[in-house]
Amino acid sequence: MAARRRPRSAVPRRVATLSVHTSPLDQPGAGDAGGMNVYIVEVSRRLAARGIAVDVFTRATSSELPPVVEMSPGVTVRHVSAGPFEGLGKEELPAQLCAVTAAVLREEAQHEPGHYDVVHSHYWLSGQVGWLARDRWSVPLIHTAHTLAKVKNAALATGDRPEPRARVIGEEQVVAEADRLVANTADEARQLVDHYGADPRRTLVVPPGVDLDRFTPGDRAAARRRLGVAEDAVVLLFVGRIQPLKAPDLLLEAAARMLADDPGLRDRLRVHVVGAPSGTGLEAPRQLEQLAAQLGIPDLVRFLPPVHAELLAEHYRAADVAVVPSHNESFGLVALEAQACGTPVVAAAVGGLRTAVRDGVSGVLVEGRDPADYATAIRSVLARRELLSAGARRHAGSFSWERTVDSLVSAYTAAAEEMAAAAGSGVAGTLMRPPRVLGAVRPLGAQVAR
Ligand code: UDP
Predict the structure, then answer these.
(1) Atom of ligand 1 minimally distant from the CA of 36
(2) Ligand 1 geometric centre to CA of 35 (Å)
(3) Where are the beta strands (DSSP E) in 184-231?
(4) Is the pLDDT of residue 99 over 70?
(5) Which of 8, 219, 327, 362 shows its CA 20 to 30 Å from the CA of 317?
């Protein structure tokens, strides 16, 4: 017999956020923690401030972790046990998805039916869990991919491993199942439709934001004093996880090129690299240092471990230019944060970076991967830094996490209303799982063939 549900209003009161492979409590800039973690933290606390409680489910990676942590008022992180705590790589997690799903469902089953109004999954591994939770709880599944295997594989760094076929198929399944797909940019929405067969009517563009209270322009000289950087230095900054995809090596090569073109810069040029190895970068953690030595610039490059946002803002302020030379980015929060601090950006003209940076206004976008082109772009930014700094602040100011949350709440609400309408029972008192949209579930063979 179906359990009695309390009436459900379309605007959600409680969201189950799934972040299986990385926790919002982790420090971004290392391992599996990056922009997605920041996204979940920023969105969750703003949802909670609007009276929408958020439970974030993530896999416990240590026996020391308490099962429940209040991250901020109204935001609870729930550590679920699935598989061995330590030493399990992201690529091994598909084998644990059944255990994660069981743990999430058990957790929810301790409450009255109808505890969650919506499931929001992040990254395909969570999407796989979300799809079952959605069926079980009769609530809409909203999914944000963050990265897509097909897109990543099309722009691989030399020597980097392609994402496995199993991930591609897993993503296709989630795309077919989700009630709403949230893309960071129109580009990403198109990729979902063109490469994954997403239904355009269920695919939304919701730009991420930037915390304009934390990432503020400030006194460059003061930031330099705090970080121990000479006032007349020319500082090029890389921030992010150190892995081939992010291509910090290209920045080092560009810096070496700048010195070759102008040896007089040697006393002043500095490259700051903030972040720690991640992904395939973990296999050769000293590679970047070795490259700096090979290029004859080991004394000019400073490697710094990941830092919290407040100190990161000082790094952005202290820099002359932030450089984001990634092979691909679904957005690139670092680019936006640097601009919010008044630091122009030189970035690869790929993916979301084309939205995150306004070419010629807030920085320069570089086509191709020639270090000489990066050196030229950096020089051109240095030559008109004041102007670009003003453009950078303006551009970053047009993004806001509040607007991100406005759009997400609208998406949650519309999906819930649609689900209730499909069940034919109006918004309140949904008792039965509504029928799935016909054709949403495709046979595996068809997915593989595409
Ligand atoms: N980050 C941080 N401390 C660091 C390095 C990075 O907090 O030392 C954060 C940074 O503020 C940004 C995120 O990590 O919000 C990286 O996001 P981005 O979208 O640039 O890259 P992703 O990690 O998603 O590939």
Answers:
(1) 24
(2) 5
(3) 203-205
(4) yes
(5) 327
